Amino acid sequence: MSKVMIVTGGSRGIGAATARLAATRGYQVAVNYVSNREAADQVVNEITAAGGRALAVQADMAVEADIVALFETVDRELGPVDVLVNNAGIVDQVARVDEMSFERVDRMMRVNVTGPFMCAREAIKRMSTRHGGKGGAIVNISSAAAHRGGSSEYVDYAASKGAIDTFTEGLAKELAGEGIRVNGVRPGVINTEIHASGGRPDKPEQSSKSIPMGRAGNAIEIASGILWLASDEASFTTGARLDIDGGV
């Protein structure tokens, strides 16, 4: 039986690249999306056309019931999860902290921090040898912003990703004896649609000047790191944070 991977936020950008690459490595893939069913279906159709198996599943990472239903759907349609990629995340418009509303920060933390916690909870219940599982892997997607701070742009986003770094380290230690490896990937500036949603569609081009390698990254470069951490090639790796950022 091929392994099952859940990719949250799998309809675009890094998530979509990860889902496609995972399918070529033999995974059955659950492509999670929150609202853009058309984009998720396109990823699924590309995978199935190439002979793989994939499923689009709607779930809002800020809603616990949606997350529980996501895992139950995957149990029923694909089987118990082997790999969870906590990729779903949001960014907001450029702003200083003294310009941020409570609602903005609350939403940022619910989607970017609470959502991954709840997804991990559901994955652990299925993977952990403590619960009768056979083990597995969790890969949390953080950001270079976690150690750069996002000053005068997205301090709330950076803080949420700093929380993910801490979560990764703590959870890795908690689960190391239960057959689950937990690692993180910290992308730098990547050519994806997320920058437009934050009002900075030109950020990859503008940031290239300050990246030592002289360019922004591509989603497939991040997906490759994610798939390595999920694979048996990384069998002695847990609690790691893999920086894929062009040297920043």
Write the layout of secondary structure elements.
Layout: E1 4-7, H1 13-24, E2 28-33, H2 37-49, E3 54-58, H3 64-77, E4 83-86, H4 102-127, E5 136-141, H5 145-148, H6 155-175, E6 180-187, H7 194-197, H8 203-207, H9 219-230, E7 241-244
Parallel strand pairs: 1-2, 1-4, 2-3, 4-5, 5-6, 6-7
Helix pairs in contact: 1-2, 1-9, 3-4, 4-6
Task: Throw out a few tags for this protein.
248 residues; alpha/beta; Rossmann fold; seven-stranded parallel β-sheet; 7 strands; 45% helix
Question: Short summary of the structure?
Answer:
This protein has about 250 residues and is α/β, with parallel strands linked by helices. It is built from 9 helices and 7 strands, in the order E-H-E-H-E-H-E-H-E-H-H-E-H-H-H-E. Helix 1 (about 15-25) runs parallel beside helix 2 (about 35-50) and helix 1 (about 15-25) packs across helix 9 (about 220-230).
- What CATH architecture would you give? 3-Layer(aba) Sandwich
Task: Report the radius of gyration as a whole number of Å.
Answer: 17 Å
Q: How many beta-strand segments? A: 7
Please describe the biggest sheet, giving its number of strands, its sense, and whether it closes into a barrel: 7 strands, parallel
Describe the structure.
A 7-stranded parallel beta sheet has the order 3-2-1-4-5-6-7, sandwiched between helices. It has one domain (4-244): NAD(P)-binding Rossmann-like Domain (Rossmann fold), CATH 3.40.50. With 248 residues, it is of the alpha/beta class. The protein has helices at 13-24, 37-49, 64-77, 102-127, 145-148, 155-175, 194-197, 203-207, 219-230, and strands at 4-7, 28-33, 54-58, 83-86, 136-141, 180-187, 241-244. The protein is 45% helix and 15% strand. The model has no long low-confidence stretch (mean pLDDT 95). The protein is built from 9 helices and 7 strands; from the N terminus they run βαβαβαβαβααβαααβ. Helix 1 (13-24) runs parallel beside helix 2 (37-49) and helix 3 (64-77) runs parallel beside helix 4 (102-127).
